[in-house]
Design goal:
Chain lengths: 239, 398
C-alpha cells in the first residue's frame, strides 16, 4: 500500500516536472508560387509549468506563426513540438482540436466572444464541447467571479459590456477547462492603458496561482509583467 | 446542444432573411403538393365515372383503311355508314358465351318535348329490354320499358328539359317518327364505355327497327362475368371476326381504363414537376442564404475551431439552421397546400369530396419531405465549406 502511494507520488511529480511545451528544431516553411517562405527557422525552446513568458518581435518576424504552432492550429514543416509530453506532429485534425479544447486556453486581442451567446454561455462553451452535453453553469459563474466580473453581467450579451469586461469573459472562457497553458495574443491591444493594466494584474495573479502563460505582444510595458521574454527576428530566436 | 441553440438564435436574429427563405420553401411545397392533390382528385373523379363499366368489351365496326364494310343498313340519321350485321352479332354471342353480348343501335335525332317547344338534339339508343338488367342501368324513377313506345331517359336530359315519368317526346323535327313515352329515369352514370345515357334516350330495339328500318347494329357490348379477364374476351372476338380482314374494332374497358389512369398519372407527374421548379428556385435561395450565413460568420467559425470545436460540430450548426428553415417552411407549406388543393379542386373540378384521401395525404407528405430534403441538400455544401475553413485564415478574417 505504501509502495503504491510512493509510486503515485512519483508519477505526479514526473507529470508536474515535465515541461508544458517543448519546441525542438522547429522549422515552418510556407510554399508560395513565388518561392518558399521560411517563417520559423530552427526554433528550440521549452516552457516550464508556471512560467509567464512574453514573445516579442517586429512585424513579420514569425510571432504569429509561432503562436499558431503553440496553439496547435498549425503543424511544423520539420522538428518536434510537444504539449504536456504529447507530440503534435502526427496528430489528426480531430486530435489537435481535442488538444486545443482540453490543454490550451486562448485569449485574443479582440476578445472574440460569440455574439449570439450570453456571457455565461460564452464561458461554458468549451465545457460543453468537452462534455458533449448541457453543463452546470455554476462552474462558469465561479470562474467569472475569479476574474472579477460582477454577477449582474452574467446574462448579458458580449456587446452589452465594456471591452475590459469582455476580455475578462474571454479569460474566464480560456480557463474553464483548466488548461495547461494560456496563449494570449496582444491581450491588452484593444484596451485603454488603465483597463489593460487591470487585465495584466489579473493575468499576473493567475500566474502566481500556477497558470502557465505565454503572451505575444508588441508592448514592452506589458511584457514587463512576464518573467521571461523570448525575442524573435527573421524566424529565429535572438534572445 | 449549444449548436442547435446557436442555429435557432441565428435564424431569429436574421428573421426577415430566414422568413423569406422559408417562404420560398412554402411556395415550393404548396406548388408540389397542391398539384398532386389536383391530379389525385382528377383521377378520383374520373375513376368514379368509369369504374362501373370496367367489365365491358365494346365491339364496333372497323373504320380504318376502308375495310370491314358489312351489312346493309338504313341510314337512320347516322352520319357514318358502318354497321355490324346480325351474323356478326351471332358470331360474337357464340364466341363470348357464357358472357352476355348486347346489340345496340344508336342515332342522333331531333325531337320535341311538349307542344311548341324548341327542337332538341339527343342520342337515341335502341336496346332489347331483356338486356337492360345486364347493362346495370339504375333507375331513379319509374320502371323499365313498358311496351314498344316506352323509353328510359338520362337524368341530365330529364333535368335539363324538365321531363318526368309519363312525359311524351315527339321524335323528328315535326314528330314524323312517332312519340316515345318516358317510363323511367336513369341514374347519372358519367362517362361510359358502353352507353352514355345521361343525356340520351334508351328506346326498345323493336321501336328503333320499325322507326328507322334497321336490321343491323352500331355496336355490340359484351358484359364480362366476374372472374374472367376482359383482355381474354377481346382476344377471342378479334380471333373470331378479324381472321382475314379487320372488320371490327374491339375496345377492352379495363385496358382503356388503365391507359387513362396512366395518362392521368403522367399528367399529375408533369404538373407536379412544374411545381418542383419552384422548389428548385427555393433551394437556390436556401443555398444562397446559407452561403451568406457562412461568409458572415467566418471569424466566429475560426474562434470556434481554435477553442476546440470539431469540424463536424461546425457542420452540424449550419445543417441545423437549414433543417429549421426546411421543417418550418415545409410544414407551413403542407398545411397551406391542403387549403390550395381545396380551392383548386373546388374551382377546377367543382367538387372537393376527394380532398381527404390517402393519395392526397401522400402528396402532402411527399411535398413536405421534398421540401426538407431540398433544404438539407442545399445546406450541406455551405456547412461543409464552413467546417473545412482553415482556422488560421478564419481567425484573421475581418
Amino acid at each position: 500500500m505504501v509502495l503504491l502511494r510512493e509510486k503515485e507520488q512519483e508519477v505526479t511529480l514526473t507529470m508536474n516536472e515535465q515541461p508544458v511545451m517543448v519546441f525542438k528544431d522547429v522549422v515552418k516553411v510556407y510554399p508560395l508560387p513565388a518561392g518558399d517562405v521560411t517563417a520559423l527557422d530552427d526554433i528550440s525552446f521549452q516552457v516550464e509549468r508556471g512560467e509567464f513568458i512574453s514573445v516579442m518581435g517586429p512585424s513579420g518576424s514569425g510571432k504569429s506563426t509561432l503562436l499558431n504552432l503553440m496553439g496547435c492550429l498549425d503543424t511544423p514543416t520539420s522538428g518536434d513540438i510537444s504539449i504536456s509530453g504529447t507530440r503534435i506532429r502526427d496528430m489528426s485534425d480531430v486530435e489537435l482540436t481535442n488538444l486545443r479544447r482540453d490543454r490550451i486556453g486562448f485569449i485574443f486581442q479582440y476578445f472574440n466572444l460569440f455574439p449570439l451567446l450570453n456571457i455565461i454561455e460564452n464561458v461554458t462553451f468549451p465545457m460543453m464541447l468537452k462534455s458533449q452535453k448541457a453543463v452546470d453553469p455554476e462552474k462558469g459563474k465561479e470562474v467569472l467571479r475569479s476574474v472579477q466580473l460582477d454577477d449582474s453581467l452574467f446574462t448579458h450579451t458580449p456587446t452589452e459590456v465594456s471591452g475590459g469586461q469582455q476580455q475578462r469573459v474571454s479569460i474566464a472562457r480560456a480557463l474553464i477547462n483548466d488548461p495547461d497553458i494560456l496563449l494570449c495574443d496582444e491581450p491588452t491591444g484593444n484596451l485603454d492603458s488603465k483597463t489593460g493594466a487591470g487585465i495584466m494584474d489579473l493575468m499576473s495573479e493567475l500566474n502566481r496561482k500556477g497558470t502557465t502563460i505565454i503572451m505575444v505582444t508588441h508592448d514592452s510595458h506589458i511584457a514587463e509583467y512576464s518573467r521571461r521574454t523570448i525575442r524573435i527576428a527573421d524566424g529565429r530566436i535572438v534572445e | 446542444m449549444i449548436f442547435w441553440e446557436i442555429a435557432k438564435r441565428n435564424i431569429r436574429i436574421h428573421m426577415l432573411r430566414s422568413t423569406l427563405a422559408m417562404l420560398g420553401i412554402v411556395i415550393g411545397v404548396v406548388a408540389i403538393a397542391s398539384m398532386g392533390i389536383l391530379g389525385n382528385s382528377l383521377v378520383s373523379t374520373v375513376s368514379e365515372s368509369l369504374s362501373s363499366v370496367g367489365d365491358s368489351v365494346t365491339v364496333s365496326p372497323y373504320s380504318g383503311g376502308g375495310g370491314g364494310m358489312m351489312g346493309g343498313g338504313g341510314g337512320g340519321g347516322t352520319s357514318v355508314n358502318l354497321k355490324l350485321s346480325d351474323q356478326n352479332f351471332q358470331q360474337i354471342k357464340r364466341a363470348v358465351a357464357p358472357n352476355v353480348a348486347i346489340p345496340v343501335l344508336s342515332t342522333s335525332e331531333r325531337m320535341k318535348v311538349g307542344v311548341g317547344s324548341d327542337d332538341i338534339v339527343a342520342t337515341i339508343y335502341g336496346v332489347d329490354p331483356q338486356y337492360i338488367p345486364d347493362l346495370k342501368l339504375v333507375l331513379t324513377a319509374g320502371d323499365y320499358n313498358n311496351g314498344n313506345s316506352g323509353c328510359l331517359i338520362g337524368s341530365t336530359f330529364a333535368e335539363d328539359h324538365n321531363i318526368k315519368v309519363g312525359s311524351r317526346i315527339s321524335i323528328g323535327s315535326d314528330g314524323e317518327k312517332g312519340t316515345l313515352r318516358v317510363t323511367g329515369i336513369i341514374e347519372e352514370r358519367g362517362m361510359s364505355f358502353d352507353l352514355s345515357t345521361d343525356n340520351a334516350i334508351v328506346a326498345t330495339q323493336d321501336w328503333f327497327d320499325n322507326t328507322y328500318n334497321r336490321n343491323d347494329y352500331d355496336q355490340i357490348i359484351v358484359k364480362v362475368k366476374e372472374g374472367q379477364d376482359t383482355a381474354d374476351v377481346k382476344t377471342i372476338i378479334e380471333k373470331q371476326l378479324n381472321k382475314r380482314d379487320k372488320i371490327v374494332s374491339v375496345m377492352d374497358s379495363k385496358a382503356t381504363l388503365a391507359t387513362i389512369y396512366s395518362t392521368f398519372g403522367m399528367v399529375t407527374t408533369f404538373v407536379t414537376a412544374i411545381g418542383g421548379i419552384s422548389m428548385v428556385v427555393a433551394g437556390v435561395s436556401i443555398f444562397n442564404i446559407m452561403m451568406m450565413s457562412v461568409n458572415e460568420r467566418i471569424k466566429e467559425i475560426g474562434i470556434m475551431r481554435s477553442i476546440g470545436t470539431q469540424k463536424k460540430e461546425v457542420m452540424s450548426m449550419f445543417i441545423y439552421e437549414a433543417a429549421i428553415i426546411g421543417v418550418i417552411g415545409s410544414i407551413v407549406g403542407g398545411i397551406l397546400s391542403i387549403v390550395a388543393g381545396y380551392l383548386i379542386s373546388a374551382l377546377m373540378l367543382g367538387s372537393t369530396k376527394y380532398l381527404i384521401t390517402m393519395a392526397n395525404a401522400l402528396s402532402v407528405g411527399e411535398g413536405i419531405c421534398f421540401g426538407i430534403v431540398v433544404c438539407l441538400a442545399c445546406g450541406i455544401y455551405p456547412a461543409w465549406q464552413a467546417a473545412n475553413l482553415n482556422p488560421i485564415d478564419a481567425l484573421r478574417h475581418e
